Amino acid sequence: MAYQTLLFDVDDTLLDFGASEEASLALMFKHFGLSLTDEIKERYEVLNQNLWRQFERREIDRQTIFQRRFPELFQEFQLADTTAGLQAEAVYREGLNHGHQQVPQAQALLQQLSQLPQLQLYIVSNGVAKTQNMRLQDSGFAPYFKQVFVSEAVGYQKPDVRFFDSVANNITNFDKNKTLIIGDSLTSDIQGGVNAGIDTVWYNPQHLTTTTVQPTYQISELLSLLKLVEQSA
């Protein structure tokens, strides 16, 4: 079966979100004259991931993430008051908007995929629409994609099947049997593919194991996707 539609996640699949996040945190803490220690960074990562998992499970909305993560972090470490925590979100977001460090091989992969006439590339992201669009533009990746689908605009988030139903309804001649979802997250990208009945590629550069959701394919280097797609033709 020849794949024709590739649905790409953004963060830690094409763009190095970890690097962008660290730079934005450093910028924000400097703005408030605070010291960003390893302990604070580690705690923020746990707190933030927990909130995003709740969002994926539809237990909270996106705005709740932004209203809680820095106020709770600041309160836990007695850094500043709640008002400063809310202000921190805006400063952090502005830095993140311009973070576009690339994942290794992402540029080469997109260049080579763009040479295959049977393929159409799309973005499917749970991020913030303004942030993701700015990062894709700044990275030079935007021209490779026919359309960008971000949960904030779609109204549903991965892994909700309604997110992928909306994507399918907005792609001409969409055929889920000729579609691949490529992403690094088992809980949103791969589970989303399972929910929607779409084949998945788990980008797993750290060679992690999973005993829960199972991807259709697994790669540790992005350029391996090229061979996979070519072999399906």
UniProtKB/TrEMBL annotation:
Q: Which UniProt keywords apply?
A: Hydrolase
Q: Where is the signal peptide?
A: none
Q: Which InterPro entries match?
A: HAD-like_sf (IPR036412), HAD-SF_hydro_IA (IPR006439), HAD-SF_hydro_IA_YjjG/PynA (IPR011951), HAD_sf (IPR023214), PGP-like_dom2 (IPR023198), Pyrimidine_5'-ntase_YjjG (IPR052550)
Q: Which GO terms describe its molecular function?
A: 5'-nucleotidase activity
Q: Which SUPFAM superfamilies match?
A: HAD-like
For the keyword Hydrolase, the answer is yes
**PANTHER family from the entry?**
PTHR47478, PYRIMIDINE 5'-NUCLEOTIDASE YJJG
This protein's name = HAD superfamily hydrolase
